[in-house]
Specification:
With 157 residues, this protein is of the alpha/beta class. The protein has five helices and seven strands; from the N terminus they run H-H-H-E-H-E-H-E-E-E-E-E. Helix 1 packs across helix 2 and helix 4 packs across helix 5. 32% of the residues are buried.
């Protein structure tokens, strides 16, 4: 007879599943039915990623899930920095609110700091949301090679 799973082992198993596959994190955050392109985007090991989609296709949702996955599962000796850049305060706030909602649904741990423009996690990973006319282009996510730790940028236009 198998040992009965305790809540701790169930939490550990769920956390491991989310760490290994960001689609599991999406499910835990309330997005059980991702489109194929969304699941492929989350699972892609590519260093640079671009989404070219129509309006209301889920770009912000998928980007926010990827950001949460990156910060939650970065090692403490290499904390992640995710910058969320948008042309306006409204757009920046909307995307950051999606990120925070996903984080609080799946994290199970309070951040060290939660402000209107940033989250700092216990592993020292950070998400910072900045409005301003930094660029002109579609929403994209990519990691910069030059930094010692992965630093995804989420551009929201």
């Amino acid at each position: 007879m198998a040992a009965m799973a305790t809540p701790t082992t169930l939490d550990l198993a769920g956390d491991m599943a989310m760490a290994l596959d960001p689609v599991n994190l999406a499910r835990a955050a309330g997005f059980p039915n991702l489109d194929t392109y969304q699941a492929e985007f989350l699972r892609s090991p590519a260093k640079q990623k671009i989404l070219l989609c129509s309006r209301q296709a889920g770009k912000s949702t998928i980007s926010s899930l990827l950001a949460v996955h990156d910060v939650l599962y970065s090692p403490a000796d290499r904390p992640a920095l995710v910058l969320v850049l948008s042309p306006s305060l409204r757009q920046s706030s909307e995307l950051f609110n999606k990120i925070k909602a996903a984080y609080y649904k799946v994290a199970g741990v309070q951040p060290r700091q939660d402000s209107a423009i940033s989250l700092i996690l216990p592993n020292l990973s950070r998400i910072v949301s900045l409005p301003g006319p930094f660029f002109a282009g579609p929403l994209s996510t990519y990691r910069q090679q030059a930094l010692p730790a992965p630093a995804p940028l989420l551009f929201n236009h």
